[in-house]
């Protein structure tokens, strides 16, 4: 994964401080201001964790993940599963106290990015997609729409993405005016950094369009490292002194690109990445590994807690990176726990970000991390 030239941490702090002193964040007021902050999470409909079990006291917004556009008409594909599951999801959350807003997320990491590229390529196909998304959201009672296009492949895709945001927001404004209902929220999950190079040439997100048309963008600040690499790594490090692959760099790049901090909602993982160590005695960050570890390369947080206890694993808090890792025998896991999440949320709050989100509900351990993050944000 290619990244822009490394910015030393001191310079990073200076430019963030300068940016936060400017009035840039007030140039694009949101119709839906964050107010006390966004504490969001994605609910994967394909998992077994029931929506009725969500403790809404820790969240303000819940995403239904995911629907996909049909590859020919670009209208949302409502499978029989979704037609059954969405009403259950909405019904389970509609009367909860405290209340949460629900958003329909479209896309996801396992989808065919070419379909989104083709959909966004013409005004006609964008219109079909937009109209269908609004129709489905209103039919089931969602309060917002979220795009998770992973990832626009080149400068043309990014240009078309800007047009999609613009036309989508205009359609949402018009629909709200005609229906007399509150406008649907419009959000978008994006790469952790505003510019990147992988699977193609250099490209940058349309920061101006994000600032003007979205209620917020959600940088996915995780999956920096994984078992596709032959060395151990912290997949959601807040800082990395040796590279730009870190949350602090990514969030800084978005602010530097011109997106107001209050329109950024920082992603946090409720899962870890695992490896098999080449030498169990050599067990630090960045040491040689042979491939996937427990869980075929991924363990969710409650599994990590159980693994650490069951194997009497050594648990290490990396204070420089602000992340955890544990190891037992040849098994190695990089992840977040209460302390690192607390510090990350406070980092987001100190920069004036709009909030944070988790991937994903059902992965926590008795709401341990969710409650800690919520308390850190509110207090």
Terminal residue distance: 37 Å
Helix content: 25-40%
User: How many domains, as an integer?
Assistant: 2
For the record, the CATH architecture of the largest domain stands as Alpha-Beta Barrel
Overall shape: it is globular
Q: Could you state the order of secondary-structure elements as H and E?
A: HEEEHEHHEHEEEHEHEEEEHEEEHEH
Number of strand elements? 17
How would you summarize this macromolecular structure in one to three sentences?
This protein is of the alpha/beta class. The protein contains 10 helices and 17 strands. The chain has 2 domains: about 35-270 and about 335-379, TIM Barrel; about 275-330, Chitinase A, domain 3.
């Amino acid at each position: 994964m290619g990244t822009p030239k490394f910015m030393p941490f001191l310079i990073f702090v200076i430019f963030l401080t300068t940016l936060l002193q400017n009035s840039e964040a007030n140039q694009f007021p949101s119709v839906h201001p964050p107010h006390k902050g966004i504490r969001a999470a994605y609910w994967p409909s394909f998992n077994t964790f029931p929506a009725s079990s969500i403790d809404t006291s820790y969240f303000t917004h819940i995403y239904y993940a995911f629907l996909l556009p049909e590859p020919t008409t670009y209208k949302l594909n409502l499978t029989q599963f979704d037609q059954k599951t969405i009403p259950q999801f909405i019904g389970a959350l509609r009367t909860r106290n405290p209340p949460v807003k629900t958003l329909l997320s479209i896309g996801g990491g396992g989808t065919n990015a070419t379909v989104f590229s083709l959909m966004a390529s013409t005004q006609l196909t964008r219109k079909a997609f937009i109209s269908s998304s609004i129709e489905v959201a209103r039919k089931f009672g969602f309060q917002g729409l979220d795009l998770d296009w992973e990832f626009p492949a080149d400068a043309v895709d990014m240009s078309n993405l800007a047009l999609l945001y613009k036309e989508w927001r205009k359609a949402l404004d018009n629909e709200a005016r005609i229906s007399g209902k509150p406008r649907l929220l419009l959000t978008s999950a994006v790469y952790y950094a505003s510019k990147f190079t992988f699977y193609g040439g250099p490209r940058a997100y349309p920061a101006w369009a994000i600032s003007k048309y979205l209620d917020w963008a959600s940088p996915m600040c995780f999956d920096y490292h994984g078992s596709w690499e032959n060395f151990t790594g912290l997949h959601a490090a807040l800082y990395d002194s040796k590279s730009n692959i870190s949350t602090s760099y990514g969030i800084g790049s978005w602010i530097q690109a011109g997106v107001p901090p209050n329109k950024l909602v920082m992603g946090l993982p409720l899962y870890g990445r695992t490896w098999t160590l080449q030498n169990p005695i050599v067990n630090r960050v960045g040491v040689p590994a042979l491939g996937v570890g427990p869980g075929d390369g991924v363990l969710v947080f409650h599994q990590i807690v159980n693994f650490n206890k069951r194997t009497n694993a050594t648990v290490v808090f990396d204070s420089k990176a602000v992340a955890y890792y544990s190891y037992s025998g040849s098994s190695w896991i990089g992840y977040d726990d209460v302390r690192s999440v607390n510090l990350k949320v406070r980092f987001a709050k100190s920069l004036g970000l709009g909030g944070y989100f988790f991937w994903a509900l059902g992965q926590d351990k008795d709401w341990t991390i969710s409650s800690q993050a919520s308390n850190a944000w509110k207090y």
